[in-house]
Design a protein that fits this description.
Length: 248
C-alpha cells in the first residue's frame, strides 16, 4: 500500500501493507516512546498490528503523489515489530520494583495510561494478548492484573536472540564464514537497539556471558533504518492513495 500524509508544507510517502486487504481498512499513526531512548516516535497501528517506521532517502529523486510532488525523494517504510519491545518499558515502570520487592500487580488500563501518550491506550487488546508471555497474571473475578516477571522476560529475549542468530546467515552469506560468537554478538546488538541497558540488555548479556560494551556496537549496514526521533508524520489517520506513484 502506498499512502501519503498531507502536512502544512510538504507531503510524506509511506509504503505499508494495505490495511484493507485482510482487515477493516483502518490505519492510525500513534505517538509512543522509543523503547530504548524514550524519545517520542511514530508507529503505525494497522488492523491490530503494530509497525515501526523506517526512513529511506536517495541522494537525488522526487516522488509524484497524485497532484503533489515530494521533492526530497524520501519515503517511509512500515515493518512489523513485536509489541512486547514497545510495551516493556511501560510495564517495567508500572510495577514499581524495589530491592527485595518484585513490584505490584496492575490492571492494563492503569499501565497503559501514560501522560502525554494517549496512543498506548489503543494497544489495550494487543497488550492483553502479547504481554502474557513476559508477565505474571492474577485474575480476581473478571479482572486481570499484570506484573512483569524478570525470568519470563529473559526467556523471551533468549528466544529472540536464538531466532535472530539463525536468521542472520540467511540474510547475508558473509555470516557463514564468521565465528558463532560474532553472530551471537550481532544478534544481541540488533535487539539492543530496542532495549534499555538496565535491566534488560545487562541481564541478557550476563546470561549469555557476553561483554555489554561489545554487544552494544551497531551491527549490520542496513539501507533502511528505524526513525530515532519523532517522525514528521503526525497522528492523523492515513488516507490511502489511489493513483500510482512514480519516481524520477
Amino acid at each position: 500500500m502506498g499512502c501519503w500524509w498531507e502536512g502544512l508544507d510538504e507531503c510524506r510517502l509511506l509504503i505499508a501493507p494495505d490495511p484493507g486487504a485482510n482487515g477493516d481498512g483502518s490505519a492510525r499513526l500513534l505517538s509512543l516512546r522509543h523503547p530504548k531512548s524514550g524519545v517520542r516516535t511514530s508507529f503505525l497501528l494497522s488492523n491490530g498490528l503494530l509497525q515501526e517506521l523506517h526512513w529511506f532517502k536517495q541522494s537525488y529523486g522526487s516522488w509524484f503523489l497524485g497532484d503533489y510532488i515530494s521533492e526530497d525523494g524520501s519515503l517511509y517504510i512500515a515493518t512489523s515489530i513485536d509489541p512486547v519491545f514497545i510495551l516493556l518499558p511501560i510495564f517495567e515502570e508500572a510495577r514499581m520494583k524495589k530491592v527485595g520487592d518484585p513490584g505490584k500487580f496492575r490492571q492494563l488500563d492503569e499501565i497503559l495510561f501514560v501522560d502525554e501518550y494517549p496512543g498506548y491506550q489503543r494497544l489495550f487488546s494487543i497488550a492483553e494478548n502479547c504481554m502474557q508471555v513476559v508477565c505474571e497474571i492474577k485474575e480476581i473475578g473478571s479482572s486481570k492484573f499484570f506484573r512483569l516477571d524478570d525470568m519470563k522476560v529473559l526467556t523471551w529475549l533468549y528466544y529472540k536472540v536464538c531466532h535472530l542468530k539463525q536468521t542472520l546467515p540467511a540474510l547475508d552469506q558473509n555470516y557463514a564464514a564468521r565465528e558463532e560468537k560474532d553472530t551471537l554478538v550481532d544478534a544481541v546488538s540488533i535487539l539492543g537497539e530496542y532495549l534499555k541497558d538496565e535491566p534488560w540488555l545487562t541481564l541478557l548479556c550476563n546470561h549469555l556471558k557476553l561483554n555489554l560494551l561489545e554487544s552494544k556496537r551497531i551491527a549490520s549496514d542496513f539501507e533502511v533504518r528505524p526513525t530515532a526521533i519523532e517522525s514528521p508524520i503526525g497522528s492523523s489517520n492515513l488516507a490511502q492513495g489511489k493513483n500510482k506513484r512514480e519516481k524520477e
